[in-house]
Amino acid sequence: MDGQVDAKLTFEHWLQGKSKAFQDEYFGPGRADLWRNGHLTLAELLDMRGRPLTIDALKEKVASG
Questions:
Q1: Quick one: pLDDT at residue 37?
Q2: Most CB atoms within 10 A, among 28, 58, 60, 62?
């Protein structure tokens, strides 16, 4: 997609350089918004097994956080 990238570039930093539309498509608009606005990190969007949490679970996490 982007060709060769610097080995020091993290996935999160790579995603930050992508358009809002790409981020919305990748995460879903609700999750992308929580991540973009700094409410949650990429790791916090996932459960202990690496599966995406539901948007309701993420909103609850933000509210209690």
A1: 94
A2: 58
